[in-house]
Amino acid sequence: MRTAANRHPAARPLFRTLPRLRATALAVLAALTTGLLGTAHADLDDEELLTDAPTATTAPAADPKYVWDLSPLFASDAAWEAERQALLAELPALKALQKDFGRNPASLRKALDRLSATSQRMRRVGVYASAMASTDNRNARNQERSAQARSLSGQFGASVAWVDGAIAALGEKKINAWLKAEPGLARHSMRLQEVVREARHKLHPEAEAALAALGPVLGGQANTRTLLTTVDIEWPSITVDGKPVRVDSTGYNRLRGHPDRAVRKQAFDAYFRANTRFENTMGSTLAQRVEAGVINARLRSHPSAVAASLSDNAIPESVYRTLVTEAQRGLPTLHRYFKLRQKMLGLPDLGYHDIYPELVKTTRRYTPEVAAELTLASVAPLGAPYQAQLKKALADRTMHVYPAPGKSPGAYQSGVYGMTPLIFLNHQDTFGSVSTYTHEWGHGMHTLLANGAQPPEKAGYPLFLAEIAAFTHEMLLQDHALKTAQTPEQRLFYLGEAVERLRSAFFRQTMFAEFELQVHDALERGEAVTGKRMTQMYCGLLKQYHGAEAGVMNIDPTVCSEWAIIPHFYRPFYVYQYATSMAAAHHFSTQLLAGTPAARDTYLGVLKSGGSRHPVPLLKDAGLDMNSPAPYRALIAQMDKLLDEMEKLLAQRAATATPSQNPNQAPG
Q1: Alpha-carbon dihedral of residues 16, 20, 21, 22, nearest 10 degrees?
Q2: Is 440 an active-site residue?
Q3: Taking CA 61 as the corner, what is the angle to CA 57 and CA 63, rounded to the nearest 5 degrees?
Q4: Beta-carbon count within 10 A of 601 CB
Q5: Does a structural domain hold residue 86?
Q6: Residue 136 φ then ψ, to 5°
């Protein structure tokens, strides 16, 4: 997830491929192309302020080995433009497919094959535009290209808006008979069956076409927010160590972990005060995005926006509600961690600006090369073939590694079928950056395995599964780091990293999920939801999750506008899947580390399934019931176990420490 590519309430997306895209052209393409052949997975982790990954400018950014090569997508901008024009010219022919679409099984297969091939070309166009934009949002040509891709996606959506209605008109009985009669339809079976399942929520073809054509307008709020925060806002500067530091998202992410508490507080105050000045504008853009989801749910006869969103992948709403209930039940464990953090930092009290400093410092530098080495070693439980495939992928120039001016924050994975995935990073040479690195390559390997086992129409995996592979990578990394720690202090460092990851990926994401529920519920009740109202809602959750009333942490009202910096909210009901996936990853990684071949085969089978099955029954067949409290309680129990060991090591350190020792310094 590292702080996180676009939920799709308005229409079923084209493909489910690839977690972590930007909310620009490809995000719109994924969200708005009315669904032919699967469900797109785009990921604003795409900007993971969620995972709290820092994004400071780093010198090696321009080194060619750290910059991806997009020429396999398009050799030049001119080649991209030629393909865009070719696709525009093909749109009338896609509309014409309607004439013989359902005449017989062969004509249906022929039409779906052509639509599939065109959608893959569309994805290539979108991925290129999105990748270029995310590396430099200031570039006018990048902005223009993104706008052109969004426009193309809207026109494409309008051209194929008739498809779902035509499939539904065939009826379940005929579709099942034709699937038996025409083997070539097998690759399209999931899409055909999904249309039948969701038919009652579809509108008249003309209405679907109109919504698709309006897609670039209806889904433009995320792009507005991105340009506002990365280009237009004049962020303040503060003086740190005698030098001015601009407190934009990059500066904030870097300074919030500063060892000097006064600097942290100053950075928080500057950043959130500047953020609060745009509270009304940010509130308006987010309210428009939420309102679009609410209206979409009503138009499509869903009981609520959350139900409409979860329906895309047949996720029971009870899964969402169970997660929230279990996270609330586990808040004493979270508060226990905060109290331990206060003790380890030696603070008289705890504020929101005290969450991010390292509990134990290390002098070790984790370069991208070190990250690759640790990632390869840590995935040994997944088997030698898995390691070999990952090593081969790492050798391709598909990573954009270091921060750079105008570059989007966070991390994501993207790409097209049949190619090594693109990995977008903001590497900081820290262990946290290693976690991000292995996380994104968890997505990458998920994509490669699904692509190798499924046709393109079934390879794209749903959002609910996407983060499981990434977090499983992270948990294997944590286990490897703990096993290879050479001193108690190193072990304490890695334990602290593991616990912090549980805080950010499980509890923090569930808090976000609750915020989304509150905002959508309010709009569905007919209440006006402004930026100030969102700040009030978010503030209540901040206080609850961080134990303000119990005296665990002080929540300064200034930070209550934090909701406005979270890009994931422009993909409603996406973030909860970080938390569910963390629980699922704990389940699978525990089994993998036990070393049984059957567990490995079961887990890899989940990844290879891609989007060929609905995720909840798929996981249940693999021994994991996400509708049960069990996986969430097991994860919280693991957090308590980690805290137990940290407290034991701290007690041992206190018993042996001398006055000259730095209690929070781990040897490199």
Answers
A1: 140
A2: yes
A3: 160
A4: 10
A5: yes
A6: -160, 95
Write the DSSP assignment of 539-570 as a string of letters. HHHHHHHTTTTTTS-B--GGGGGGGGG-GGGG
Total count of domains within the chain: 1
Q: Is residue 187 part of a domain?
A: yes
- Widest distance between CA atoms in the chain: 85
Q: How far apart are the first and last CA of the chain?
A: 27
Q: Could you read off the pLDDT of 315-373 as tens digits, one per residue?
A: 999 999 999 999 999 999 999 999 999 999 999 999 999 999 999 988 899 999 999 99
Residue 658, number of CB atoms within 10 A of its CB: 5
Q: Kindly state whether residue 468 falls inside one of the protein's structural domains.
A: no
Could you report the per-residue pLDDT of 599-612, keeping only the tens digit for each?
999 999 999 999 99
Whether residue 386 is contained in a domain is answered as no
CA angle 122, 147, 413 (to 5 degrees): 55
DSSP state of 407: P
Residue 412 DSSP class: E
267 touches 255 (CB < 8 A): yes
pTM for the model stands at: 0.85
Backbone angles phi, psi at 107, to 5 degrees: -70, -35
User: How far is it, in rounded angstroms, from Cα 115 to Cα 278?
Assistant: 43
- Burial profile 48-83: b = 16 or more Cβ within 10 angstroms, e = fewer: bbbbbbbbeebeebeeeebbbebebbbeeeeebeeb
More confident residue, 415 or 646: 646
Cβ atoms within 10 Å of 353's Cβ, excluding its own: 25
> Rounded distance, CA 381 to CA 351, Å?
40
Residue 643, helix vs strand vs coil: helix
The two tokens of residue 21 are: 């895209």
Pairing assessment for the beta strands 665-666 and 361-362 based on DSSP bridges: parallel
Identity of the residue numbered 310: L
Three-state secondary structure string covering 182-221: CHHHHHHHHHHHHHHHHHHHCCCHHHHHHHHHHHHHHCCH
Q: Which of 47, 83, 440, 467 is catalytic?
A: 440
Q: How far apart are CA 583 and CA 604, in angstroms?
A: 17
Burial class (CB in 10 A: 0-12, 13-18, 19+), 641: exposed
CA-closest candidate to residue 265, choices 230, 240, 229: 240
| CATH code of the domain covering residue 106 | 1.20.140.70
Distance CA 616, CA 618 (A): 5
Q: Which domain range does residue 207 map to?
A: 25-41+65-225
- Tell me how far apart the alpha carbons of residues 396 and 407 are, in angstroms, rounded to a whole number: 21
Q: How much is the CA Rg of the chain, to the nearest whole Å?
A: 24
Instruction: Return d(Cα 445, Cα 95) in angstroms, integer.
Output: 36
Q: Beta strand pairing status for 237-240 and 243-246?
A: antiparallel
Q: What is the DSSP letter of 230?
A: I
